[in-house]
Write a structure and sequence with these properties.
Elements lengths: L11 H16 L5 H6 L3 E2 L5 H11 L5 H9 L3 E3 L4 E3 L2 H10 L9 E7 L4 E6 L5 E5 L2 E5 L2 H16 L6
Antiparallel strand pairs: 1-2, 2-3, 3-4, 4-5, 5-6, 6-7
Amino acid sequence: MYIPEIPENNLKPLLEELVYIAKKLDEDEEISEDDRFRVMFEFNRPATPEEIDTLEKELNVSLPAGYKEFLQFSNGAQLCGHTAEFDNTIGVSKMDKWHKSADFPKDYIIIAYLIGDGEDLCFSRKTGEFIRYFEGKGTIYENFYEFFKWLIRFIRDSAGDYVEL
């Protein structure tokens, strides 16, 4: 499994925990092939400063700090099967232009899909808050760090069914 270098930023402690969980699952030889698919992690190379700048220009917004720090670690990722699937910078831009339904809040920018059930992770252009958006309702997180803390807890609980953490 490819794991990018963890950058020196505010997200570092959470990224270290995420990588720890990913390695534990990857190294466990007793996980069946079916289960391995359910808990797999795939990280991409980090986004370049140019890719981040391009995304900000295309969205006409400054990306929230924590999300930008995540992109500096991995430009898109699949975390613990379908628990969280983050788009890369190109995917985020395309999604913002083409994929939203008419009733989807125009203020929200989709950056990931969660739990494999149609839930989106978005951030608000206006407030910078992060929103887990599902069937017209949202759970709001003040910033990416707060959301990512929730995500790590969720992944840790899921991974705990397979390995001791």
